[in-house]
Amino acid sequence: MICEQDMLVDKVCELYEQISRLESLKPCKNVDMLFTQLVLTCLPPSPIDVTKLSPRVQHIRSKLIRVCGEAEGLLESHYSSILASYHYPLRHLHLFPYYSNYLKLSLLEFTILSQHCPHVPSKIAFLGSGPLPLSSIVLASNHLPTTVFHNYDIDPLANSKAARLVSSHADLSKRMVFRTSDVLKVSQELKEYEVVFLAALVGMGKEEKTRIIDHLAKYMAPDALLLVRSAHGARAFLYPVVDPCDLAGFEVLSVFHPTDDVVNSILVARKCSLPTQDLAPVMLFSNGDMIEEGLLHANEEED
């Protein structure tokens, strides 16, 4: 009898085969349909551990993450161009099909960040902002109205498209800076930031992601916060996984695994200024539940 996990893996592999036969990953009816099916397949909470899958499936997962990253970049670029055609682009963000997900993700990240940041950060770095920097825009507009955002991307075209979106906004055009650079070449500048966001698709392979995190640990200011986007369960077919143990040089403060339509997990860590043996236990969250030192505490709702 085929178990649920096997059915999930078979479906993901089948969708990968269909996606790999596409002539282009640019947004169109067929591309949108296949990636929607893929996301809906991977979205339900699953106990699957992708590290224990067969080498063949591991290889497919690795290729699938890169394909998803390419498709996501093309989708964002497409909608960035559409939005830029309006006189006031930021009034039309709802046209992007996943805008509501960014609203939820940004609220989650701000809420978790607020638990560990004693004051409103004056300057934040977002690494891997892309041509449609919705995270920075939503955070700057809705949650951090005085914070300056420095957005880094390796692609100069992505940065020019992103800058065009905020150029007509009197406030955000002053608080959103776009810099073209490879993350591994951003070094001394990192000491300026109280908070650094690492986008999910910056470093798609485990080795590449680890190298980036080690670089951040070397150059970020002591006690600065790092917010890393990861994936959990079947969602790890869509995005790379970052485990708490990967964050060498950081004190992991909390991990959040959403179980709704927010795809990315969120890890918050503080750049170490203490020996690792003195660090406090990590807090793990999953949709309101908290695990601390192995004990589960369900948050009680007040009447």
Automatic annotation (TrEMBL):
InterPro entries: Nicotian_synth (IPR004298), SAM-dependent_MTases_sf (IPR029063). GO terms for biological process: nicotianamine biosynthetic process. Its EC number is 2.5.1.43. Belongs to the nicotianamine synthase (NAS)-like family. It holds the Pfam family NAS. It is an enzyme of class 2 (transferase). It catalyses: 3 S-adenosyl-L-methionine = nicotianamine + 3 S-methyl-5'-thioadenosine + 3 H(+). Keywords: S-adenosyl-L-methionine, Transferase. SUPFAM superfamilies: S-adenosyl-L-methionine-dependent methyltransferases (SSF53335). This is Nicotianamine synthase. Synthesizes nicotianamine, a polyamine which serves as a sensor for the physiological iron status within the plant, and/or might be involved in the transport of iron. One of its GO terms (molecular function) is nicotianamine synthase activity.
